[in-house]
Structure formats: C-alpha cells, structure tokens
C-alpha cells in the first residue's frame, strides 16, 4: 500500500492511501474523526491500517529529523522563483537556501500562522526576470504583488493552480503572450491586475468563472477580439478596465445587467454598435470615448446612434461589391427619396444629382472612418513600441504612465484597493459608524496611488524616519506635491473603532496654520496606514536654526514674528472646541513639528496623530521632546498632558526662533529677563530687529515656560497679545 502526504494550508497532516482512504493524524498521532462501530472485516482492515500508521510513526520517531515535506516544496519553489525573478542575484540576496522564509529574513515574504508562505510583496524592486512555473508550489499563497517591475516573458499557466490566491498584481511590467485561461480556475481570486504590459490575444471566456472577482484591470495592453459576454457572469465585479487595447465588436448586454458594476472603462478601442442603455446608471463610471464606431443615447462621451449603427461595421463592404448572399445596404433618407427609387435605378432622372450627393457623402464618411481607424492603429503601435522597450528605468515608466493617465483622465489604478488582510474600515462598524465611514470615504486613497506617488517608496523620496513611521515625498497624478507618512498597523490603535474615530478626527481638522491632511490609505496587503498631507516646500523650522552665516537662508525679523504668531494661532485652533471637532492637546509640539510653506507660513504637523497611535508609540515619541526641553515639568509628576503643556512647548519655540538656536541655556533665560539682546537674539540678524518686540516676545516666552502651569497664560491670551489687538494680557503678562 502506497502513501502520499499532500501539502495543506493548516497544521494537520492527511495521509492518503492508494485506495483513496484518508486518515487524519492529529497532534496525538491518532485518528481525529469519531467513527461509528465497524464490522469485523472493517476492524481487520483498520487494524492493518493502524499497524502501518504506527509503524510509520515509529520509523519517523527513530529517524534523523527531517524538514517538513511541504516546507521543502515551498523552499524549492521560492528558490526557483528567485532565480527567475532576479537572475543576476542583485535584489533577492536574502532568499538563501539555508534561510527560513517564515522568520522575516526573506525580503517581501510573509507566512501564515501555519508557517506556510502566504504573501509575496516585491512591488517596485526593479526585478528584470520572468515568472517561474514554480509558483505553483506555493499552495497557500493568498497575495502576489509583483507590480511596478520590469518582468518579461509569459504568465505561466501553472499559476492557475494557486487556489488560495485572492490578490494577483502583475501590472506595470513588460509581460507578453496570452492571458492563461487557467486563471479562471482560481476560485478565490478577488483582484486581477494585469494592466500596462504587452499582453496579446483575447480575454479567455473562462475568466467569467471567477465568481469572487471584484476588480479586473487589463488596460494598456495589446489585447484583441471581442469582450466576452461571460464577464457578465462575474456577480461581484465592481470595476472593469479594458481601455487602450484593440478590442472590437460590441459591449455585451450582460455587463450592463451586473448591478454590482461601478466602473467600466473601454476607452481607446475599436468597439462599435450601440452601448447598452443599462450602463447609463454608472454615470461617469462608464468611459467609452475614442471608439469611433461606438454610439449611444444620452452618453456624454459617445456620438448619437444612427440607422447605420444597426449594421456591424466590421462587415460593411464597399458599394457595388456585395455578394449574392449579402443584402444590399439600404440608405434611409426622406420619404420622397424612398418613394421614387427601386432596387435597380431611380425612376425619376431628375433625382440623379441628389443620389450622387448622398452616395458621395456616404463614401467620404466611410473613407474618413477608415482613415481614423488607421490613424488610431498607427498611434497605438507607436505607443506600444515605446512601451515595449526594455531599456527604461522604473522611474521613467512611472513618470510616463502618470503623464498618460493625466492626459486621459483619472487612472483606473486610483480606484483600486487590496482585498486581503487588515481593514479598519471594514463592515464591523454599525450604528453611528456608518456616518463616519461615509465621511471618511471622501478622503480615501488606495495603495496603487500611494505607490505611484512615491515610486514604490523609493529611498530617493524618503524624507525621514521615526520610531513608528516613515515619511516620503510624493507626486499625485494631478501633479500636486504631498508628504506621505506610513505607519505600521502594529503601531496603531488595536481597537478598530478607536482607529476609525481617530481618522474621523484628523479629517475634520482644518486651519491655515496646520498641515492639511489630503486623505489616507489603509493597505490591507501591506498592513500599513498611510496619511497623505500637503507638502511643505520650505521644510522644517528646525532647519533654519543653528545656521552659520552664508550656509542657508537666514530668517529675517518680520518672518520670525510671523512664524511665532502663526504657530500660536494654530495651537489656539486645536485647543478650541468647535461643532465638528473637540478640543485637542497636541502633546508633541516642537520646531521639528513646524513646517514652512512657500511663503514661510508655519504649519503645525501631526495634530491629533496620537488618536491613531498605540499608547506605547505615543510615549516613545516623548523621549525626543524631553531631551530637547519641550516637555512641561508637571508631566513628570502627573503623567498627564494639558493645554498648558502645549503652551510650555510654545514658549520654548519662541526663544529658539529669537535666538536661532536649538539648544537653550539658563544664561539665555537670564539674558531675556534683563533684556540683554546681544545674548539671546540671533547674531545672524546683524541687529536688524525691533527691541520692543524682542522684549515683549522674550517676556511671553518666560511666562509660557513657567514651572507652575497655573502661572502660564492660555494660548488665547498669548494670541491677543501677539496680534496687538487689545491690551487684555498686558496687566497679566507684565505686572
């Protein structure tokens, strides 16, 4: 009797016998299934089976320890995959034969709780190889992210055996050949991303078997043929992108009947006929322009249909060349014209000029349409020729795609999201949570747009790192500059409801002296949250301190006054309670958290960020504040932050801006008290400052940093004094 041990995605081991009897061995080595009493013959057979199983276990017990068979299979598959993806061994050096893929040492590889490879994330790594059929050995793979590389060759048909795969991202590569029909066997597939490659052939009808598919993107390839009606069977499909290919024929009515469909993009093809009226419900979600043969009623991007559109444009022949089996094309004109003509010639010779004109117009129209098709094909071949070259960098490719998408409207990638893993905005909320989600949806970005903006988190775009996050410079597809902060899920609030409340707060904060949050992205596949802020081109305020004359820009006196006033106004806003937001204590204000826009207007960063972060992350950030002198002394005894602790940090910033120094000293405070300007005013100003304003700001800084919080002014009182709007504070400050 022969035994085989198939690989599974859990911890139990199944032994399959040659007569298809399956025995499950649990952790005790016994059959875990409770069975009914058997006959003597069955007992005899079971006795033999148990004997063999016991013998097998005995042999295993006294044999030298061997790696798990499935582990060997996965290791072989990973090493073969490495050899194909990175043939020069430049980028995946961490994938070694003696390593452990589940230890975190294999770059981009993550395992499930059963120590099986579940996720491969190698997007934007500069891979230049091919896809190996060895992928089929990773039976538990649920996410494969290889987009934004320069992979070539064909998609192996063996990929269809990955029954657990839910996310397949192969977009923005240089893959060629046909789409394997075997992909239709991947029952769990939810996102299929193949756009921006060199794929040819038609769409396999078997794709219509992917009942779980929600997103299908095939745009910017060389695909041909008709759009298969089987795509209408994808009951979960929400977004379908087929633009910038060579599809012909009509749009299937079955697609229009799919009530889940939200986006259908068929731009820049050679489709013909009338667009199904059911697509009108998609509004702007339907994009069909640049299909000369496509028409429709009440579609803004399509021309109106005529009688000619009832004839398949691909079967139209030149006039006079119809075969005996083809009925002549009947030209619909006015009733008078039809009444005076028969099948051979016009009965009224006086109508001959009119017939000649009509025939001439139709002939010219056909010629123009044909010329349009030829021009379109020529442009497409030219574009594909540009896209097919392998002598380009990832940065060039991303830039070219961004330009292409900007020219032709919003990219379909903007509408995508990973479908596997962590999602704090899932369906777990109810009640009042729905209103929050509705508000937050208008701020949502997706991982594809974040990756495109940062060139897949290129080190070139890295602005800085902290204990819990990294910040990257990015360019959105509309051309605007942003700063994108990535935070790992392990650093975020563990309760999803708390996390959503924090996001809701951050999106409600709006003030001219706060860094504006453009939106956020919760990446399920990466397990990260991304916050997208407006980019501050002049950098951090700290960069303008401790400056040696001539090494960088020197802030003049009026700019320093404006910066101090702006910071105070920003703090005043977050301390105030309004209809759409509660009062907030920043907790971590410093010159590192003050950014400057193009006009040197101050923008306070990270307001409310602590509402997203786990407590230990918040506390770890305080170490830097304490070292730089921003931490109010009462925190040591109370362990609490109040508005007065923010005021303390603001007082420190005033003195830093006046002195141009990051590190302050007691002698500097004494100089402020005695108005010895030469000892606390930045020497780079060359004495170009107002002594009265310097004295007043110095006094405010001393009061704000008073050891007793009760003796510190409120930020509102400081603002009134700084703007010289009223002498309300004068008695309190200078008595």
From TrEMBL:
<protein>
    <recommendedName>
        <fullName>Protein kinase domain-containing protein</fullName>
    </recommendedName>
</protein>
<dbReference type="GO" id="GO:0016020">
    <property type="term" value="C:membrane"/>
</dbReference>
<dbReference type="InterPro" id="IPR001245">
    <property type="entry name" value="Ser-Thr/Tyr_kinase_cat_dom"/>
</dbReference>
<keyword id="KW-0812">Transmembrane</keyword>
<keyword id="KW-0677">Repeat</keyword>
<feature type="transmembrane region" description="Helical">
    <location>
        <begin position="355"/>
        <end position="377"/>
    </location>
</feature>
<dbReference type="InterPro" id="IPR000719">
    <property type="entry name" value="Prot_kinase_dom"/>
</dbReference>
<feature type="compositionally biased region" description="Polar residues">
    <location>
        <begin position="14"/>
        <end position="34"/>
    </location>
</feature>
<feature type="region of interest" description="Disordered">
    <location>
        <begin position="14"/>
        <end position="41"/>
    </location>
</feature>
<dbReference type="InterPro" id="IPR032675">
    <property type="entry name" value="LRR_dom_sf"/>
</dbReference>
<dbReference type="Pfam" id="PF07714">
    <property type="entry name" value="PK_Tyr_Ser-Thr"/>
</dbReference>
<feature type="domain" description="Protein kinase">
    <location>
        <begin position="457"/>
        <end position="724"/>
    </location>
</feature>
<keyword id="KW-1133">Transmembrane helix</keyword>
<dbReference type="InterPro" id="IPR013210">
    <property type="entry name" value="LRR_N_plant-typ"/>
</dbReference>
<dbReference type="InterPro" id="IPR011009">
    <property type="entry name" value="Kinase-like_dom_sf"/>
</dbReference>
<dbReference type="Pfam" id="PF00560">
    <property type="entry name" value="LRR_1"/>
</dbReference>
<feature type="transmembrane region" description="Helical">
    <location>
        <begin position="43"/>
        <end position="62"/>
    </location>
</feature>
<dbReference type="Pfam" id="PF13855">
    <property type="entry name" value="LRR_8"/>
</dbReference>
<dbReference type="GO" id="GO:0005524">
    <property type="term" value="F:ATP binding"/>
</dbReference>
<dbReference type="Pfam" id="PF08263">
    <property type="entry name" value="LRRNT_2"/>
</dbReference>
<dbReference type="InterPro" id="IPR001611">
    <property type="entry name" value="Leu-rich_rpt"/>
</dbReference>
<keyword id="KW-0472">Membrane</keyword>
<dbReference type="GO" id="GO:0004672">
    <property type="term" value="F:protein kinase activity"/>
</dbReference>
<dbReference type="GO" id="GO:0033612">
    <property type="term" value="F:receptor serine/threonine kinase binding"/>
</dbReference>
<keyword id="KW-0433">Leucine-rich repeat</keyword>
<dbReference type="InterPro" id="IPR050647">
    <property type="entry name" value="Plant_LRR-RLKs"/>
</dbReference>
<keyword id="KW-0325">Glycoprotein</keyword>
